[in-house]
Design goal:
Elements (H helix, E strand, L loop, with lengths): L1 H24 L5 H23 L6 H22 L6 H17 L5 H21 L6 H20 L4 H17 L1 H50 L6 H31 L8 E3 L1 H13 L6 E8 L6 E4 L1 H18 L2 E13 L2 E10 L6 H4 L10 H12 L3 E7 L3 E14 L9 H7 L3 E6 L3 H10 L5 E6 L2 H10 L4 E5 L7 H9 L8 E5 L6 H7 L4 E4 L4 H12 L3
Parallel strand pairs: 2-4, 8-9, 8-10, 10-11, 11-12
Antiparallel strand pairs: 1-3, 3-7, 4-5, 5-7, 6-7
Length: 558
């Protein structure tokens, strides 16, 4: 008896310490904080009553009443967390009835408390099933600890219930009721929310990008085919086709910018170095943007310094994006006058500093607007992306402008030198077409319109073109006939492109190059499909020129 009294006294000291610490540190006045303070006080009183009941048995009734009160307040705390307040009245009525019975019945009323605890257990089990939340699983766990404590006390006749209550209050203070812990938990919750939100946004962007790119590929491909046949059209129809082609390309660019912004926000810009011809890349971009100037009174001047190395080593795609975004901005904002595109280079050993300058005679900006130029919606997404890409590549971008007179951008990028000089003559695609003998090419795509469009893009070649509409059909055709090139879509019913390629790789003597045609626009998509075993990758939407490049790569020298 004496040792048990010492145990209760120790618990009283612990309870007082917890009350004082909570009072000094926790200044929260929320409903849950007030209920927690009430549980601390009730626990302290129940410990005092338990100590007195050792000498005065009648006090045991009031001790049981305090246990019932603690359980009731603990239930209110849980209901408040789950915003389940509509059942508080029912809970309160049962609490009053149970308390009266515990205080007035002539026999040992500990069983009344057991009944009340069982009622709460079933009630909380209902909440657990209907309202379970990962953020609130701890409170449910604490309720089960309380139930286990009662079971142990009733079966083994060991008075440990107040010890269990103190343990619960201690855990609650260091998790839900401690200001520092609560702040940390809120931060974790916020990070989790934004992680899920970001994940959902990425999945949505991937899905939308795939669907839009699929149909854009069809529009751009067919408009390229019609442009090639434009000699058969009248002038108005030629303009309409050019308009469709121009609008499709610009929609494709805008889609790419939205995806780039998402990548940049997540810090997922990856620099992938390869050997490339800077002048050729820049000329292709200039030609694509010059279409915007056809209906304007704007002259585009282009100048490449003769000391630019023939081949550089760097991320040609991102260098192209920078040039394209800045040049598009100049074309968009210039209604008359001229745009000057100049590139020079400073070469030292194996390093080359490219200096790209683009200046226009457009609307220009005030000095106080220049700092915001890369971040305001009015200038579009292109400038923001260009600045972030330059920064990711370790370069520098500067801007100067005069209102109503024009704007000038200067970009400095350091690239490695692969080759200072190149061949004087470059083989043209028309010459390659004449050299290619009849080859067997298999087009695999679940959409018949895409197959039709690809056939039209390849009609100038002397190819035997076959088609398959899923991976299984592809495997069946390859097992019966040799093909020199396979153009394979990725997402298809029955069997997709990746699964089909794995089966093809297991066929005897299969050495046919397979090019992935996909609307997957992830930053590392090319790397992913090359690892899967594809020989090359083309992202939808693609142009006639991109398909011809792959033909040249795999069949041009055979």
């Amino acid at each position: 008896m004496r040792s048990f009294s010492y145990t209760i006294i120790c618990m009283l000291l612990f309870s007082v310490t917890l009350i004082v610490i909570n009072y000094l540190k926790n200044k929260d006045e929320s409903r849950s904080a007030k209920l927690y303070k009430a549980m601390l006080i009730v626990n302290f009183i129940s410990l005092v009553l338990e100590l007195i009941s050792l000498s005065v048995p009648f006090i045991n009734r009031f001790y049981i009443f305090m246990l019932i009160s603690f359980t009731f307040i603990f239930s209110l705390y849980t209901l408040n967390l789950y915003d389940f307040n509509k059942t508080i009245k029912i809970n309160f009525i049962i609490y009053i009835v149970t308390s009266i019975l515990a205080l007035t019945l002539p026999f040992n009323t500990i069983y009344i408390y057991y009944f009340y605890l069982v009622f709460n257990s079933f009630f909380l089990l209902y909440i657990f099933v209907t309202r379970y939340d990962d953020d609130k699983h701890l409170i449910i766990f604490l309720h089960f600890i309380l139930i286990i404590g009662i079971i142990v006390e009733s079966v083994w006749r060991v008075s440990i219930f107040n010890t269990i209550i103190l343990l619960i209050l201690f855990i609650m203070y260091h998790t839900m009721e401690n200001p520092d812990s609560r702040k940390l938990l809120n931060e974790i919750k916020i990070k989790k929310y934004y992680y899920n939100k970001d994940k959902n946004k990425t999945e949505f962007l991937n899905y939308m990008s795939h669907e839009v790119r699929t149909y854009l590929s069809l529009i751009i491909g067919l408009s390229d085919v019609i442009k090639d046949e434009s000699r058969e059209l009248n002038a108005d129809l030629k303009d309409d086709v050019n308009g469709i082609n121009y609008a499709s390309y610009n929609l494709y660019k805008m889609l790419g910018k939205i995806y780039d912004i998402d990548r940049i926000e997540k810090g997922k810009i990856k620099i992938e170095d390869s050997v490339y011809n800077f002048k050729k890349n820049a000329e292709d971009i200039i030609n694509a943007n010059s279409a915007m100037l056809r209906e304007k009174n704007v002259h585009l001047n282009v100048e490449f310094s003769p000391n630019i190395p023939y081949e550089l080593i760097g991320d040609s795609v991102k260098v192209g994006e920078i040039i394209n975004n800045l040049l598009y901005n100049a074309c968009y904002h210039t209604m008359s006058g001229e745009i000057n595109f100049r590139t020079s280079a400073m070469v030292y050993k194996d390093k080359c500093s490219l200096i790209i300058s683009i200046n226009d005679t457009g609307k220009g900006f005030k000095n106080d607007e220049l700092d915001k130029l890369f971040y305001v919606p009015e200038t579009g997404l292109g400038l923001t992306i260009a600045k972030d890409l330059v920064k990711a590549m370790g370069g520098k971008i500067t801007v100067s402008s005069i209102k109503n007179k024009g704007t000038s951008f200067v970009v400095i990028l350091t690239q490695k030198v692969s080759s200072l000089t190149g061949p004087d003559d470059v083989i043209k695609i028309t010459e390659i077409k004449e050299e290619i003998p009849s080859k067997n090419v298999l087009i695999v795509d679940d959409k018949k319109d895409n197959v039709k469009m690809l056939k039209k893009l390849l009609k100038d070649y002397n190819f035997n073109l076959d088609e398959a509409y899923n991976g299984k059909e592809c495997i069946k055709k390859v097992s019966k006939k040799h093909y020199d090139l396979i153009l394979m879509d990725i997402k298809m019913p029955v069997m997709g492109g990746v699964a089909a390629l794995k089966v093809l790789k297991r066929l005897d003597n299969f050495k046919t190059p397979v090019v992935a045609l996909t609307a997957d626009a992830r930053p590392n998509a090319k790397e992913i499909y090359l690892k899967e075993g594809f020989n090359d990758y083309v992202s939808k939407p693609f142009s006639k020129g991109e398909i011809e490049d792959k033909v040249e790569k795999f069949l041009g020298n055979n």
